[in-house]
Amino acid sequence: MLAETPLLETTLERELATLAVGRRYGKVVEVVGTMLKVAGVQVSLGEVCELRQRDGTLLQRAEVVGFSRDLALLAPFGELIGLSRETRVIGLGRPLAVPVGPALLGRVLDGLGEPSDGQGAIAC
């Protein structure tokens, strides 16, 4: 049964690839400097994407900064270590956003709007 899993996964990926409506995921096909070229994902300019290993582990986030023919051009928010042709790209359907409200007062955030003061998530 375990030996059939890769075949099943390949078959499912092939079938899903035929569904062109609202595809929210794709794959890295090329890395040029710090720019990623991604195929198979329908995203919008400014949209945030997650870059994940094949097992689902989050590697990085990136922003859609352009298009070239049928490829989306992404600028990652951090290092490219660990990225490969197997890296999956998932469009989140939204731009980068920071929660705003009274709970934000006195908190320290990093450049991506994530808390870096050790006080946990911000509930705004």
TrEMBL record:
UniProt domain ATPase F1/V1/A1 complex alpha/beta subunit N-terminal: residue ranges: 28-93
Key words, A-Z: ATP-binding, Nucleotide-binding, Transport
Pfam families to which the protein is assigned, alphabetical: ATP-synt_ab_N
Origin superkingdom: Bacteria
An MF annotation (GO) of this entry: proton-transporting ATP synthase activity, rotational mechanism
Gene3D superfamilies noted in UniProt: 3.40.50.12240
Record's protein name: Hypersensitive reaction and pathogenicity protein
